[in-house]
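Before we proceed, please read the two lines closing this message. Report back on whether the structure tokens fit the sequence:
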Amino acid sequence: MKSFFSPLLNLALVVVVAFGLGGCVTTRLPVASFSPWESIELNTQANPLDLDFVDDQHGFLIGTNRLILETNDGGITWNERTLQLPEEENFRLISIDFKGNEGWIAGQPSLVMHSTDAGKNWTRLVLGSKLPGDPYLVTTKGINSAELATTAGAVYSTSDGGETWEGKVSDASGGVRDLRRGPEGGYVSVSSLGNFFATLEPGEEAWQPHQRASSKRVQSLGYQPNGELWMLSRGAEIRFNKEAGDVESWRKPVIPIINGYNYLDLAWDPNGTIWAAGGNGTLLFSNDDGDSWEIDPVGDAEPTNLIRILFDTGTDKTKGFVLGERGHLLRWTS
């Protein structure tokens, strides 16, 4: 009997230890006693995808299902707006950017809108049928001037309010799952399959492809405050560039917590705190450059995937928001 039960007992102990260790992994981070975030009610089931402000108080939030909301109190309350768009098309508004009263919206399918009066009125522009990919990211550069990047990695600029567009890239990078513009005018993108990333330096006309840091597929990629890159990969991995100026040099991965969900975005607040957002209310922060992490209690209570973190520094007072699926929004109060 002893020889029969010993293997079973050993197996049971292994299972118990495995579950115990698994529990330690998923709960090892401390929960902060204070949160700089507050939950905002949007009264919509659409997914917020982007927002920007005209000034300290006046701003717009956009998203799926033609969602456009307006605030006049710094993002505490939001009111529904409408755009003059065909009723039969279900537009996905994905990017919005203001510089003073000049504003632009990019959406899918094939949507670009322009405002010269702080968003009171919007004009839809006619895009050429040969535009590679769908509009993905728009940047306001000045009066009647903007830059538009697409899901195919094409980049165009206009200086006449969108009547004409000039291509800035000789060869698009192909389909992208994530694309971001740096403060100096360069771009980084992640391929649609997440198997490589590409960079487009300011003034260059061709994307430069780069190998991912590991065998795990890349989720998203962006710029650190110092201009170097960060990378989020499957398996809840966070990486930072190791050597300045070398986009293919990466530190060892940081894995703050394993809870079955990937991280979807990373951002730095004005105090230098790093924030990581992900599935099922995952919102973590680090005050020591990623060496240690804590769980934010307000984010942890959100029953949704947190998909994007934005800090708006374009006005006198910095504002911060975390965008979540199905109408969830967190507002930074610090």
In short: DSSP finds two helices and 27 strands in the chain. Residues 1-27 have pLDDT under 50 and may be disordered. Residues 2-27 form the longest helix (26 residues). The longest strand covers residues 92-99.
